[in-house]
Amino acid sequence: MLVFNHLETYLYLALVLFAIGLYGVLARRSLIAILISVELILNAASINFMAFNRFLAPHPAVGQVITLFIMAVAAAEAAIALSIIVAVYRKLKSINIEHATELRG
Amino acid sequence: MNVMLFGPELYYLGAALVFFFLTLKRKPEPKADYQIAMALGLGGLLVTGLCLCQHGELFFKAYRVDLFSQIFKFALALGFFLVLTICHNLPQIAERDQAEFYLFLTTTTIGMMLLVSSVELLTIYVALELSSYSLYILVPLRRGDGIDVEAGIKYLLIGAVSSGVMLFGLSYLFGATGSTYLADILPKLPQLASSPIGLLGLLLALAGFFFKLSVFPFHFWAPDVYQGAANQVTTFIATASKAAAVALLLRLAILGAGYGYSFTKALVILSIISMTLGNLVAIIQRDFKRLLAYSSIAHAGYFLIGILTLKEAGYIAAIYYALAYLVMNFTVFMVINEVAKDGRDLKIQELAGLWRRSPLLSLSLIVGLFALAGVPPSIGFTGKLLLFTSAMSQGYFWLVLIGAVNGTISLYYYLRVIYCSYFTDDPNLGPITISTPIRFLNYALIAIVLGFGVFPDRIVELAKAAVKTVL
Predict the structure, then answer these.
(1) ipTM of the shown complex
(2) Which domain holds residue B406?
(3) What is d(CA B121, CA B246) in angstroms, rounded to the nearest whole number?
(4) In B, what residues contact A, Cβ < 8 A?
(5) Tally of domains in chain B
(6) How many CA atoms lie within 13 A of B361 on its CB side?
(7) Using one digit for the tens of pLDDT, what is the confidence trace for A43-75?
(8) pTM for this one?
């Protein structure tokens, strides 16, 4: 398949993922859904790194290493985010962002 | 490898280990923990001071130790120590969590220290996340009625999105240049001036630092987090974390030099929106910490003025102002912390009669606020003067004009706070007693704010030498 051997295919894929993630962050109201959208953004960046690594980079390992780091850091982020979401649920009995409106001014 | 090169980071890593063992104790001993923390903070200041003149490269050149990074590391150590001095009572943090509070405060300091020395994209990303994640945990550590977790989740989500956007930008930078080292990327970017990928990547990559500095599109977290976090945590976010963000913005923004006008135009727009929005919304605030949050958004705009000149004078001004901002903002937060002894959120009206309740604190407040507003002869005035003259000499007349108008607007709400503490009184509010160490801290802060405002030469010389290692 010729289309899989072009850098552009992967860049467009990443851009679409990035856009979906950004839209999800802005439009969704559930904290879990927002977290998933953030992960989509991170995955879009990972795809970019892998694609550039495959087609352009002088050194073949750099992009892969970065992607591995992104995975590890994203896992840590998910752990912290979920623990705070549990704390939010315990106090507000809801994980809908619209119920978290104590702070304003 | 020379240990001194990596000295501050190793020291704080050891300190984090000490705090980790303190968290394992079955019975919490807040008093003993606090004394250990103070000793470690003071030791850190000494170690960072001793390593001030180190320079070299570590870890396959991904980590650069030079005067620029060491000055900011010293500022971070100073911020860490200053925040510890106001932790003598932590009413908002449960006793069994206090050792963890020190632990995460130390790890976020390590993260920022790594950040100011990083000159490679992956290192920058990991160091930024280390410092951010520790702060994400510190914010909801406050015991309260839900506002702490609300602030925590908002901080985390906005932070996660901005670091995702940053990573996406970094991937374009990597793709456009094929390298992750800033030193290799810099000469290659001007060749790409015809295609937007490098510029787009760079602007997206700055997003992570705009978040830390609370520059316009990523500023939403600031008021909520400032109000919702414990006073000490807010103090750290408002002082040390800003200095680290400015340091990295200075390192990254220089990449945009090849793009000339189209790059600086974007920064000019962000700077103007941040200044104006922060100052205008601050006017209507009643909670003092929220007011300071909007003031920090406005100050992010001032920092950008120095950064976007992309010239030596602007960089010197930005470094000077970052150091000055750390001290003057801390002065104000120290007053908040002493007036609100039970750790509540301070309303501006609760400052009523402060001149009678504690003359020294009211003097510190007036000095700190005048410095933030840029009234001579404080460091805030000297800093703003340096920033505006550097931008003026580059021909940014309208930017300087808008900045000056904004400075006047900001004077209005700072004066409102001073009016409240000097010209209103509430007989129900009793006098405030302050301990001897805090008394000396007050004297020292006032002396620094006024002293380095009148005699800025030493700091400017230091900043000048530091900038030479970056440009």
Answers:
(1) 0.91
(2) 3-468
(3) 17
(4) 121-122, 125-126, 129, 133, 136-137, 140, 145-147, 149-154, 156-157, 160-161, 164-165, 167-168, 170-172, 174-175, 178-180, 223-224, 227-228, 284-287, 290
(5) 1
(6) 24
(7) 999 999 999 888 886 777 888 899 999 999 999
(8) 0.89
